């Protein structure tokens, strides 16, 4: 009875490794793919800058209607469908960043690092005269010795390696590190962008002077941002004030802030203003806006009373107002309006007629009672942001600048060969070709100063 051959087992793992090595790795290392990915990321980044991010559906319906659609196709439905209202957190944008990062990483390990190793080898010698024919700049010199070339190269800061009658010298190897640093910096920037979009958050708070708050009004946050939102500390607004110029315009506004722990103890205190934020445990609080929160006053000999002030719609600027009752049954009262925190208030009766103008600290008679203005209470508008990816992004940009500068350093190489009757010299560089040619011509003149006719093959440029 004939035995049947055993069925061949299919090694899936081996096949995947072969596919990855033969097909996927060359594709990822392809410069054309990296360029396409970079342009695509740039295009969608532009769309994320032009199209307002993180707004409500009503906002997009009002600003991007279907009829007529912007450019004939861009409507609010398309924006929401593609996620263009939050470009930087969509799965496809993050996938583009990851794919671009994989392409950079593959190119670095497949091309840049092997090339650096090849250029830095100390045994890269040429042993045949015909090998010098491939250089655009080479010469064959009679009556020249290797010992004449060595000090000339050392004077020009070449690193020289010699093996018998063969010589190899190079300088500017740091120029080959530049592209690797550029790739590494871009990877750091991509990693920082992904980390920030997934774990960062953005919040806004409007807080009156004297109040304590925790971050609650978060309107933009990544899916893993919960750990970044502070829960074990709060912030107290000790005081908010505005400095005005002599003509009455705002010069600067300030917030005196205290960071409190869970027991209410102050652990940090700073005064912030525009362009000077407070930073605590990776969270940054920026001075961004202001408002009038409340009016404190006396009616006759009453204790200090407080009424909130609300923003009013006004075409000529910002206004805040409140209605102040002057009788216990609320049958009479006055409207109090102000435009800033300088303490000037306009008082109108129930028919809308201006009856008085009063400043903070002054009193006025209205409806048979004495109204004394104690204080206008201001509110500070804070923007609160956490982005754990920022250190990586800043580090990446620093490395990018360093890598670009290093990339301008020329990597020059020189080979020499001593034979029984001739001396061969050749070299090449990756940039600054004219300067390298001048350097080589100077070397040739110093090696053969007598006459160019003494050179058998001459100089090839």
UniProtKB/TrEMBL annotation:
It comes from the Bacteria. Keywords: Cytochrome c-type biogenesis, Membrane, Thylakoid, Transmembrane, Transmembrane helix. One of its GO terms (biological process) is cytochrome complex assembly. The chain crosses the membrane at residues 24-46, 90-109, 180-203. The keyword Glycoprotein does not apply. GO terms for cellular component: plasma membrane-derived thylakoid membrane. It is a multi-pass membrane protein. It is found in: Cellular thylakoid membrane; Membrane. The keyword Zinc does not apply. Its main location: membrane. Residues 31-294, 364-440 form the ResB-like domain. InterPro entries: Cyt_c_bgen_Ccs1/CcsB/ResB, ResB-like_domain. May interact with CcsA. Belongs to the Ccs1/CcsB family. Required during biogenesis of c-type cytochromes (cytochrome c6 and cytochrome f) at the step of heme attachment. This is Cytochrome c biogenesis protein CcsB. The lineage of its organism: Bacteria, Bacillati, Cyanobacteriota, Cyanophyceae, Oculatellales. The gene is ccsB.
């Amino acid at each position: 009875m004939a035995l049947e051959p055993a069925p061949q087992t299919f090694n899936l793992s081996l096949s995947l490794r072969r596919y990855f090595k033969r097909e996927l790795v060359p594709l990822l290392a392809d410069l054309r793919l990296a360029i396409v990915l970079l342009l695509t990321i740039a295009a969608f980044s532009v769309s994320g800058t032009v199209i307002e991010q993180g707004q409500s559906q009503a906002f997009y319906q009002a600003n991007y209607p279907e009829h007529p659609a912007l450019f004939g196709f861009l409507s609010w439905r398309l924006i929401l469908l593609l996620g263009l209202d939050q470009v930087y957190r969509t799965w496809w944008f993050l996938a583009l960043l990851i794919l671009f990062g994989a392409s950079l990483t593959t190119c670095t390990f497949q091309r840049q690092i092997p090339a650096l190793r090849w250029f830095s080898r100390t045994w890269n010698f040429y042993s045949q005269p015909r090998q010098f024919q491939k250089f655009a700049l080479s010469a064959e010199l009679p009556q020249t010795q290797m010992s004449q070339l060595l000090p000339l190269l050392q004077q020009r800061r070449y690193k020289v390696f010699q093996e018998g009658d063969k010589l190899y010298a190079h300088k500017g190897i740091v120029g080959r590190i530049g592209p690797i640093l550029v790739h590494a910096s871009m990877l750091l920037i991509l990693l920082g962008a992904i980390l920030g979009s997934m774990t960062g958050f953005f919040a806004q708070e409007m807080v009156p002077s004297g109040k304590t708050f925790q971050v609650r009004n978060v309107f933009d946050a990544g899916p893993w941002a919960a750990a970044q939102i502070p829960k074990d500390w709060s912030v107290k607004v000790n005081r908010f004030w505005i400095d005005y110029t002599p003509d009455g315009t705002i010069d600067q506004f300030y917030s005196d802030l205290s960071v409190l722990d869970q027991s209410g103890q102050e652990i940090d205190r700073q005064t912030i203003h525009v362009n000077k934020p407070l930073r605590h445990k990776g969270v940054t609080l920026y001075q961004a806006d202001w408002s009038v929160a409340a009016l404190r006053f006396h009616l006759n000999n009453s204790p200090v009373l407080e009424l909130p002030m609300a923003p009013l719609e006004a075409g000529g600027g910002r206004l805040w107002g409140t209605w102040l009752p002057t009788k216990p049954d609320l049958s009479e009262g006055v409207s109090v309006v102000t435009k800033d925190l300088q303490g000037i208030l306009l008082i109108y009766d129930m028919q809308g007629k201006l009856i008085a103008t009063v400043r903070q600290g002054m009193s006025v008679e209205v409806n048979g009672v004495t109204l004394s203005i104690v204080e206008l209470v201001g509110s500070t508008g804070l923007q609160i942001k956490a982005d754990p990816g920022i250190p990586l992004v800043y580090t990446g940009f620093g490395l990018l600048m360093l890598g670009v500068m290093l990339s301008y350093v020329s990597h020059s190489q020189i080979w020499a060969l001593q034979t029984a009757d001739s001396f061969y010299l050749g070299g090449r560089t990756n940039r600054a070709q004219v300067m390298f040619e001048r350097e080589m011509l100077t070397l040739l003149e110093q090696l053969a100063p007598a006459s160019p006719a003494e050179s058998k093959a001459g100089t090839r440029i």
